[in-house]
Q: What sequence folds into this?
């Protein structure tokens, strides 16, 4: 059975940092581009960033450029999101996802709360 | 404001049909395949449709979709209470070099 499991969320003060992890099992993560997608309270899905299969290419939404960094360790079947300079607007459930087809995989999400 | 425009909500009685529109531009829907996702609160989003009109294994044929130009449409027939969820369209945008989701449409079964 395939699963993506996010971890690393929690409560952080404004200006603080968090590192999210996405651990895959049942699939070889190196075969997939992987994205981070978030959903803030009462809002819709918002794509954050993605990373190519070998880590050689990344893309970011403007709102996180220079603050968030996506990376991967295919040997550990994992993808990461380093989040710096966090603000209240970054509070959300963060999902990792392959956004692939016809098989598409999502984690259950990890909650990030930015508050003083 | 989302790059892809969806109606905030649609509703219909059980057994009826609803359609959800997704309007974009030449740099996204006009150039790339569209996917549709179903999202129930507290769960992971689920892929309903890929490559504009294809259903992954296990998705019932009550769900269908199409694309024309810079717009896409999702249809749900034989509406069931279990279909109450938020639905999102998504695709790549070559001008912004980002994946874009629509704002989401809440489906309510009356």
A:
């Amino acid at each position: 059975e395939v699963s993506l499991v996010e971890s690393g969320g929690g409560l952080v003060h404004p200006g603080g940092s968090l590192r999210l992890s996405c651990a895959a099992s049942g699939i070889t993560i190196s075969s997939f581009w992987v994205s981070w997608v978030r959903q803030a309270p009462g809002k819709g899905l918002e794509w954050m960033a993605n990373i190519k299969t070998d880590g050689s290419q990344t893309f970011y939404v403007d709102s996180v450029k220079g603050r968030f960094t996506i990376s991967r360790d295919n040997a550990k079947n994992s993808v990461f999101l380093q989040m710096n300079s966090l603000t209240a607007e970054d509070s959300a459930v963060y999902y990792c996802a392959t956004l692939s087809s016809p098989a598409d995989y999502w984690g259950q999400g990890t909650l990030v709360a930015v508050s003083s | 404001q989302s790059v892809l425009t969806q109606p905030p909500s649609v509703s219909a009685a059980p057994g009826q049909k609803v359609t959800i529109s997704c309007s974009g531009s030449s740099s996204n829907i006009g150039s790339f395949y569209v996917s549709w996702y179903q999202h129930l609160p507290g769960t992971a989003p689920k892929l309903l449709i890929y490559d504009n009109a294809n259903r992954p294994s296990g998705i019932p044929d009550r769900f269908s979709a199409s694309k024309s130009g810079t717009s896409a449409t999702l249809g749900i027939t034989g509406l069931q209470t279990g279909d109450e969820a938020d639905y999102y369209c998504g695709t790549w945008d070559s001008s912004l070099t980002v994946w874009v989701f629509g704002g989401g449409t809440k489906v309510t079964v009356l």
